[in-house]
Amino acid sequence: xxxxxxxxxxxxxxxxxxxxxxxxxxxxxxxxxxxxxxxxxxxxxxxxxxxxxxxxxxxxxxxxxxxxxxxxxxxxxxxxxxxxxxxxxxxxxxxxxxxxxxxxxxxxxxxxxxxxxxxxxxxxxxxxxxxxxxxxxxxxxxxxxxxxxxxxxxxxxxxxxxxxxxxxxxxxxxxxxxxxxxxxxxxxxxxxxxxxxxxxxxxxxxxxxxxxxxxxxxxxxxxxxxxx
Length: 228
Fold this sequence. Notes:
By secondary structure, the protein is an alpha/beta fold. The chain has a single domain, classed as Spore Coat Polysaccharide Biosynthesis Protein SpsA, Chain A. The protein has 7 helices and 10 strands. The protein has a 4-stranded mixed β-sheet, sandwiched between helices. The longest helix has 16 residues, at 162-177.
């Protein structure tokens, strides 16, 4: 998934295309899946970026597993829906959804997620939070402190049995078309909300950060030294 606008980066260049040690951020995610046991990659980008991604990223760096580059939607879940619709009748057994702005994904995380599908049907990469978390009211007063031991940072990939995630997104689309308002922030929520299914948390990595704000580029550069 690489169709996000990345407004928090405060840059004219979208975060997935910013340079990270000589390559676009998106390059690293594509390389990781290109080198994994994953069969095919569907790249979802802004409709005005399809040609750029094909020529200057996919073709330039020889990513042969990228079978389609399609346009995303106005929200992340709509982008995932577009991708799933484009491949739902092609007989895939497993579907992994990954953020193109997480360049530090590793083969170990990918394999743990793939293996997790076989045991649980639905799983997401995650790590326990290190900090105390506060819940605030509308005026930014702290009103609750949840137990830190039960809180996790949710990452990607988010990995699913193909039939499960396809049905979940079809049900989500039907509910949205009927005018229902749903605050969906990740694919696990689609499965939880539309299929009433639990999602297993699989070990991710604290280095598997999402490039969101300007300082994240510097952090990712440091982490890349450990992965190279």
